[in-house]
Design brief:
The complex is a heterodimer.
Chain A (H helix, E strand, L loop, with lengths): L9 H6 L4 H6 L4 H11 L11 H10 L6 E6 L8 H8 L1 H15 L3 E6 L4 H16 L15 E6 L9 H8 L23 E5 H13 L1 H5 L9 E8 L5 E6 L5 H7 L7 E6 L6 E3 L10 H6 L8 E6 L4 H15 L5 H18 L5 H17 L3 H5 L2 H9 L1 H5 L4
Parallel strand pairs in A: 1-2, 1-4, 2-3, 5-9
Antiparallel strand pairs in A: 5-6, 7-8, 7-9
Helix pairs in contact in A: 3-4, 3-6, 6-9, 13-14, 14-15
Chain B lengths: L1 H10 L6 H13 L4 H11 L3 H10 L10 E6 L2 H5 L2 H12 L12 E6 L11 E3 L2 E3 L4 H12 L1
Parallel strand pairs in B: 1-2
Antiparallel strand pairs in B: 1-3, 3-4
Helix pairs in contact in B: 1-2, 1-3, 3-4, 6-7
Classes of the chains: A alpha/beta, B alpha+beta.
Chain lengths: 404, 149
């Protein structure tokens, strides 16, 4: 295991070569580190799969100071719990990655933003941060170098939208989590309008690996098209739900379901791509390799890497209704297409589930979905219709059975 | 109240993400966010009352009703598929409260929430900061009984 190591204490982390990457990194030039990350092919693990090295390069290139770095631990997609398990098992590697990244982009202050639902874990992270100050890995003159860096822990308030990077920035600033218009991107103008690098915690945990192995060697891990280890949250109707670490591209969707103990019942459908903001897919996807590239090629996205399995008893309209309730509840209300669209979708789904759905309702759902995708301000609104649209693509006949 | 809130504000000195930190500490201290506390925070850190309320009211974990323990039952769709609605119903019936309501004695506040990230053991709930998984209605009520003491 490269990510899900069991290293809950500093001693056990150090005995597994912990912080040796930081020592190496602090002796290297900042540009060198960024180009190693670029060479590694690492893409963000929080859902958007944006090249991490490029993001670092943009933030480093911004001339405005101070610069900030944010670790995004506001994991909120239903069915996604890999960041939690990673923080429980191997928290130091995330922080080491954060310190190295801060050094590489020239940040002196970082924020670790963790969701309120993980508050017990947040207390542990806070203890670890204090411990790292004591041991010289944080604070002034880290490991005797000229580099100084501070981390402040921030606990969220139970708002899904704050996983979106600009909403998260607003939350750290003490405001409601309203996403900002992009551009400008956080790399140019983030926290307090200063250049800010925001990375998912799993992404950060990959940074020490890249420093240790070198970008080129990291790139050779997994498949040619998408390198590196990845965590997958597998849940729903499987016999052994949990988080599984695999090299990207090495397993298929079906194989990882087998790893998770196989289907509990008879396989019907799966959801993949980032919780509620994912796709409902049929068995034709079971042979797809778990890789960002292959997912994109088939018109979907791997997202956060979560797989939710539905068995023969699951009513897809019921699932879609639940998802629409989720988005209505979590829509921040700032932009009209999302605020109104999520509400309308939920109302129509309710009508359909109660057995009163008509063809006209389906037309309305399709129209609302199009409008939300075109006009919503942030990814919450544009991804809310994805489950419905993909279900319609792969389970059209079944869904239409109850439509009059 | 003023002194307690002032102490909280003092303890967050040096933090840059100050508003969230203060609100969390106030929630912990009083079991909710009292109106008076928001007024004191506004005064002390030099922002308007409406700004504090604007932030506090946005986040579902800040509550405006006093309660000793907050029960948050996950109704995200993984838990929902595995019977979270039976858990909610059992709690509602036992304590005579529904989503967003507190018991008369202020012991429990019930919130039905979206995914709490315990999808490997659905259905799940949080009581304050503690999480419980693989629930049945009986198991959930048994856990809550322990908080009554």
């Amino acid at each position: 295991m490269m990510l899900l190591k069991n290293a809950k204490t500093l001693d056990s982390y150090l005995s597994q070569k912990g912080f040796s990457s930081l020592e190496i990194a602090l002796k290297k030039k900042q540009n060198y580190l960024i180009s190693e990350v670029e060479r590694s092919g690492l893409v963000g693990r929080g859902g958007a799969a944006f090249p991490t090295g490029l993001k670092m390069k943009f933030t480093a290139a911004s001339t405005s100071t101070p610069k900030y770095i944010v670790a995004n631990a506001d994991e909120g997609e239903p069915g996604t719990f890999k960041d939690r398990v990673l923080m429980e098992k191997n928290p130091y590697q995330i922080l080491e990655g954060m310190i190295i990244s801060a050094y590489a982009i020239g940040a002196r202050k970082g924020f670790f933003y963790i969701r309120q639902e993980y508050r017990k874990l947040a207390k542990r992270i806070e203890e670890i941060i204090t411990e790292l100050y004591r041991e010289g890995y944080l604070g002034k003159n880290i490991l005797g170098t000229r580099f100084s860096f501070d981390i402040e822990l921030v606990i969220g308030g139970g708002a899904y939208i704050c996983g979106e990077e600009t909403a998260l920035i607003e939350s750290i600033e003490g405001k409601r989590g309203f996403p900002r218009m992009k551009p400008p991107y956080p790399a140019q103008s983030g926290l307090w309008n200063k250049p800010t690098l925001i990375n998912n915690v799993e992404t950060l945990a990959n940074i020490p690996l890249i420093v240790e192995l070198g970008g080129e060697n990291y790139r050779n891990l997994g498949s040619e098209l998408c390198p590196g280890p990845k965590l997958f949250s597998v849940s729903g109707f499987v016999n052994d739900a949990g988080v599984y670490e695999e090299m990207l591209g090495e397993l298929t969707v079906g194989e990882i379901i087998d790893y998770a103990g196989g289907v509990d019942g008879e396989f019907k459908a799966l959801m993949l791509g980032g919780g509620a903001a994912g796709y409902i897919l049929d068995k034709s996807f079971l042979d797809m390799p778990l890789c960002f590239y292959h997912a994109k090629e088939r018109g979907i996205s791997l997202g956060t890497g979560d797989i939710i399995v539905f068995n023969h008893n699951v009513d897809l309209w019921q699932v879609l209704l639940k998802i629409s309730q989720f988005f209505e509840h979590e829509s921040c209300g700032q932009c009209f297409p999302c605020r109104y669209g999520t509400k309308k979708m939920r109302e129509i789904m309710e009508k359909i589930v109660s057995g009163k759905g008509s063809k006209f309702d389906i037309e309305r759902l399709n129209r609302i979905s199009r409008a939300m995708k075109l006009a919503s301000l942030c990814p919450l609104g544009t991804s809310a219709p994805m489950a419905y649209e993909s279900a319609m693509e792969y389970f059209h006949d079944e869904l239409m059975e109850v439509i009059k | 109240m003023r002194e307690r809130v002032q102490d909280i504000i003092k303890s967050t000195r040096g933090k840059e993400a100050r508003v969230m930190a203060i609100l969390h500490s106030v929630q912990d201290e009083f079991g909710y966010i009292p109106k008076e506390a928001m007024e004191i925070i506004a005064e002390e850190i030099g922002i308007s009352k409406s700004e504090i309320y604007d932030t506090a009211s946005f986040y579902s974990f800040f509550t405006f009703k006093p309660a000793k323990h907050v029960i948050r039952v996950c109704n995200g769709f993984v838990c929902n598929l595995k019977g979270s609605e039976d858990i909610i119903k059992a709690i509602e019936e036992k304590y005579g409260i529904s989503n967003g309501e507190a018991t008369k004695d202020g012991l429990f506040l019930l919130q039905v929430v979206e995914c709490i990230g315990r999808c490997e053991g659905p259905p799940a709930m949080l009581v304050d900061d503690e999480s419980y998984g693989n629930l049945t209605p009986e198991k959930a009520l048994e856990i809550l009984r322990r908080y009554e003491e």
